[in-house]
Amino acid sequence: MKRTHTLWKTGIFNILFQVLFLAVLYLAGRDVAPNLSGTREILFDVGIVLIPCAVWCFFFYLQDRVEPEPTQYVLVSVFVGMALARVIGIPIERNLGRVDTWLYTSTGSLILGSVFFVGTLHSALFYLGIRYGFYPAREFDEPVDGVAYGAFIGSGYAAAQSITYLLAHRGMTLFAVGYIATTNVLIYASIAALVGLFVGKAKFGRKPRQLYFIAGFVLSSLLGGLYQYLTDFVLVRGDGSGFLLSFVLTLVFACVILAVVCAEMRKLTSEPVPQPNQHGNLRPDWLVLAVIVLFFAVGGITRANARGGAEFRSEKYKIAFHYPHTLMPSSSEKFIRILDDSIFAEEKLGASGDFKSQFALAVRTGGVNLDALDPLAYIAAADQPLSTIQKEKITVGGLPGLRLQYSYLHSPRGKWSPELILACIDVVPKDGRTYIFSFRASRQSLDTDMPKYEAILSSVSWN
Question: Measured between alpha carbons, how far is 460 from 161 in angstroms, rounded to an integer?
Answer without folding.
Answer: 41
